[in-house]
Amino acid sequence: KELWDQSVEADYEAVLVLDCADTKRLDRFSETFSHIRPWINIDHHETNTFFGDLNLVEPEASSTAELVYKIIKRCGLPLTLEVAENIFVAIEADTGFFRYENTTPLAFKIAAEMVEQGVNPWQVNLKVMDVYDIPRLRLLSKALNTIELHLGGRVAMMTLTCNVFQELGAEREDSERFVDYARFIRGVEVAAFVREIDNGGYKFSLRSNNCVNVAEIASRFGGGGHARAAGFERSGHLERIKEEFIKEVAKVLDGKGC
Predict the structure, then answer these.
(1) For residue 58, what are the domain limits?
(2) What is the pLDDT of residues 148-192, one digit of tens each?
(3) Cβ–Cβ under 8 Å, residues 59 and 44
(4) Both 238 and 138 in a single domain?
């Protein structure tokens, strides 16, 4: 709250929005800072709404970090070790540790340059990715026990409620990347991780393996994202929402012959 109060009271010359497809994702920030101009929108989501006064949107980029890197180089700004570490981590995260389809030659080149600048991949991953607290591991165990398979094993779904987080003393961030465990199941094309959110709704994190563009599915529920990673939020009865979701996925799978 203190940080929020300080940000509201401060006098800004511009609003810089990174890695955000639309203003709905900004929640109260969108209205609070609507009087400030210009808004600068830097993003790589194919569902971006070009909401900024200035927009740098390249869906073919591996990550927003790649676009930030280009700006730094174009403007001749200093590339400190701290900046290099952040660029490396952001590219690594968005490419799924250089495994996803958006892993381009340029992504590798930029990552290599960051290592040349002094980034230690092992130490960076220890700080950011590879150190888990006990509540996260217990939360993962709970999530794995909820796995459901639908549509002949082509769709996998996991669900966690607010009560489970409270019971284990876990934070929302502790469930990051859980959806991948559903995607890893042999034969699964579309994976969904469903997390109850504070306002009585649910957040669906989606992943696909080969032929389905999950951003298209998410857009049908007011969400968006990338072809292989997307999401949306929906309020209502969970089982009903899941039924609607599975029906939409079935249409896409059958239409593509997956």
Answers:
(1) 2-127
(2) 999 999 999 999 999 999 999 999 999 999 999 999 999 999 999
(3) yes
(4) yes
The CA distances from residue 106 to 62, 93, 103, in Å, are 8, 15, 8
| Phi/psi of residue 234, nearest 5 degrees | -150, 140
Residue for token digits 């995607």? 183
Are 199 and 119 within one domain? no
Q: Are 38 and 14 in contact (CB under 8 A)?
A: yes
Task: Look at residue 33 and tell me whether its pLDDT is greater than 70.
Answer: yes
Are residues 144 and 246 part of one domain?
yes
Separation between Cα atoms, residue 108 and residue 75, nearest integer Å: 22
Mean pLDDT value across residues 234-240: 93
Considering all CA atoms of the chain, what is the largest pairwise distance in Å, rounded to the nearest integer? 56
> 250 and 149, same structural domain?
yes
Structure tokens at 200: 């009585």
Could you tell me the CA-to-CA distances from 135 to 66, 124, 139, 142 in Å, in that order? 33, 22, 6, 11
Listed residues 106, 127, 148: the one ending a domain:
127
Is residue 206 domain-shared with residue 184, that is, in the same domain?
A: yes
My answer on whether 252 and 140 are in the same domain is: yes
CA separation for the pair 218, 238 (Å, rounded):
16
